[in-house]
Specification:
CATH superfamily of the largest domain: FAD/NAD(P)-binding domain
Number of helices: 11
Helix content: 25-40%
Order of helices and strands: EHEEHHEEHEEHEEEEEHEHHHHEEEH
Distance between the termini: 11 Å
CATH class of the largest domain: Alpha Beta
Radius of gyration: 23 Å
CATH topology of the largest domain: FAD/NAD(P)-binding domain
Number of domains: 2
Largest sheet: 6 strands, antiparallel
Strand order of the largest sheet: 9-14-13-10-11-12
Bound molecules: flavin-adenine dinucleotide
Shape: elongated
Length: about 375
């Protein structure tokens, strides 16, 4: 019973392996990775800096299934994550102005190197370039991540075991819109943004929108993409500090509309606002009709995954004994800022702790 097979050597799988082996060196752990090398997604994260976690990681409102997360965080929280990162991986963290946590080096390569070195140091077996059928003898952890910017997946592992996958869509991705964005290409501007369908506001956020010729982007848009529904629109408040009445008063101080708009906005944005009727209204509600989400090739995460009704709070399967499922393959997603990477670590640690408790009864 000391055999543990882990499918997927990404953040959650490697975390579980290292935590387990360090605390019980007798465990016979094998990590199976479909790619030629382990942990390759880490290098893509946080624009090459790897945003590992967030000081607000324990605030469950940052995740879709917040009630489930609340229960998980009772067992493993951000403090446990920090201890693992420092004491098991040997990485010091650095906090930015908005509470995002990065490796002190601000290099994703440091994070990958720390994981790889620990796997070697603890003599954990790693099999790469193999997408195998599941070996369910002993304990099995499925940690195969999601479709987002990944060549491989393991959703079929779960369905073959009778588990249910909720609908999957790309998230934390850019939005395609019906309007011509070419004149706005390259503009970045701070806004208050909302995504809405008809009169129903699906989500509100603040941050910097980035206009590309083919899509709207920026962290604020990526965060709103988690609430995408077919037929939705995005509205930008370009002047959140000013009410409509304030804007009327301000406008009166300028010679004409052009001068007024250029006093507030980058020139090309001012021109686009003026092209639409009622500029004061446009400043508060500059709207785009969303025609779709960009693909998994641009998305940072996948929304949807293993139905949480089918696992316990320690990430063990309710259907199959000795099976654990961790990381992004679950129906858990969160906003940008280190919450998804953080959750992958938290789930790996929680499953590992549960396995250690379970094995206490079997290992001498
Ligand atoms: C461009 C980009 C930037 C991101 N930036 C951030 C960020 O800064 N902060 C943040 O919080 N989150 C970020 N994320 C999200 C974060 O990286 C993921 O949520 C996290 O890596 C999920 O961990 P995981 O262990 O579930 O999956 P992964 O880390 O993706 O690991 C899964 C592993 O399983 C392997 N695999 C898949 N199928 C199989 C199979 N059948 N057999 C064997 N192996 C298999 C994969 O090759 C992969 O190595 C980003 C994602 C992307 C794509």
């Amino acid at each position: 019973m000391n055999k543990i097979n882990i499918y997927g050597a990404g953040v959650s799988g490697m975390t579980a392996a290292i935590y387990l082996k360090k605390r019980n060196p007798k465990l016979d752990i094998t990590l199976y990775e479909a790619d030629t090398r382990v942990g390759q997604k880490i290098l893509k994260t946080g624009n090459g800096k790897c945003n590992i976690s967030n000081v607000y990681l324990d605030d469950s409102s940052n995740y879709n299934n917040s009630l489930f997360i609340e229960e998980v965080l009772k067992e493993t929280n951000s403090q446990d994550l920090k201890e693992f990162v420092l004491e098991d991986l040997g990485l010091v963290l650095r906090e930015d102005d908005s509470g995002r946590l990065y490796p002190y080096s601000e290099k994703a390569t440091s994070v990958l190197t720390a994981y790889v070195n620990k796997l070697k140091e603890l003599d954990i077996k790693v099999v790469t370039s193999l997408r195998d059928t599941l070996d369910l003898t002993g304990i099995t952890i499925i940690a195969t991540g999601s479709y987002a910017q990944s060549k491989y997946d393991g959703y079929d592992y779960l369905t073959s075991l009778g588990h249910k996958i909720t609908p999957l869509i790309p998230a934390l991705t850019t939005l395609k819109v019906k309007e011509d964005l070419r004149p706005l290409k390259g503009i970045r501007f701070k806004v208050k943004a909302k995504i809405l369908k008809g009169n129903k506001v699906l989500a509100v956020d603040e941050g910097e929108v980035q206009f590309r010729s083919d899509a709207i982007s920026g962290i604020v848009v990526l965060d709103l993409s988690r609430y995408y529904e077919a037929g939705c629109e995005v509205s930008f408040d370009l002047t959140p500090e000013y009410s409509l009445a304030d804007l009327k008063e301000l406008k009166a101080k300028f010679k004409d509309e052009d001068e007024f708009l250029c006093s507030l906005l980058p020139k090309m944005l001012a021109i686009e606002v003026k092209k639409r009727k009622d500029i004061l209204h446009q400043l508060k509600d500059f709207r785009f009709t969303v025609s779709g989400l960009n693909s998994y090739g641009e998305a940072q995460i996948t929304k949807g995954g293993l139905d949480l009704k089918e696992i316990n709070y320690d990430f063990s399967s309710k259907l199959k004994p000795n099976l654990y499922i961790v990381g992004e393959i679950l129906d858990i997603d969160a906003r940008c800022g280190g919450f998804n990477f953080g959750f992958a670590i938290i789930s790996g640690l929680t499953a590992a702790k549960s396995i250690l408790r379970k094995l206490k009864f079997f290992i001498n």
